[in-house]
Specification:
Oligomer: single chain
Strand order of the largest sheet: 1-2
Helix content: 55-70%
Strand content: under 5%
Order of helices and strands: HHEHHEHEHHEH
Structural class: mainly alpha
Largest sheet: 2 strands, antiparallel
Radius of gyration: 20 Å
Shape: elongated
Distance between the termini: 14 Å
Length: 161
């Protein structure tokens, strides 16, 4: 797919010292009994504190299944890695949203073939109209003549996981 070939995924993101400190403080605040790890419920509270949403059962299950079975929960090092990855994904999604918004000049919430042509003429002026049309058709998953943010995000993430 065209977008995955463009190398859309950014390099690994690193937290600033103040962000790292905040994450450690949240870990300690959620580890009320000073066990040295976060239980499933502690982890959920930490995610609410840092990201403003309660993780789904599926997300919590995925995190807990990745934890070392020799420990009783998520250790600080694991927690910091999980939070860094979540923050990286959040920033990447925001970047995709920003690109989509730049293409959506009429603020309709979707992209047309004309939007694609104008955008590609700016970023890749030598790209043929035939290639642009192929890319548009590939990204327009339901073939309705519009590329929604969901379609666009899928295309930008294609082949990344």
């Amino acid at each position: 797919m065209f977008f995955s070939q463009a190398g859309a995924r950014p390099r690994m993101w690193e937290a600033s010292p103040s962000e790292h400190k905040k994450w450690v403080e949240v870990f300690k605040a959620c580890d009320e009994e000073n066990k040295g790890y976060l239980s499933r419920e502690d982890f959920k509270v930490a995610v609410v504190m840092l990201f403003g949403y309660k993780p789904s059962k599926i997300e919590a299950d995925a995190v807990m299944s990745s934890v070392d079975p020799n420990t009783s929960g998520i250790l600080l090092k694991e927690f910091l890695d999980i939070v860094r990855k979540k923050k990286e994904a959040q920033l990447y999604r925001n970047e995709i949203r920003h690109i989509f918004t730049a293409f959506d000049r009429h603020y309709r919430g979707y992209l047309t073939l004309e939007d694609f042509k104008k955008a590609f003429k700016q970023v890749a002026p030598k790209l043929s109209e035939r290639i642009i049309l192929e890319v548009f058709r590939e990204v327009d998953q339901d073939s309705d003549g519009h590329v929604s943010f969901k379609d666009f995000e899928y295309a930008m993430n294609y082949g990344q996981k």
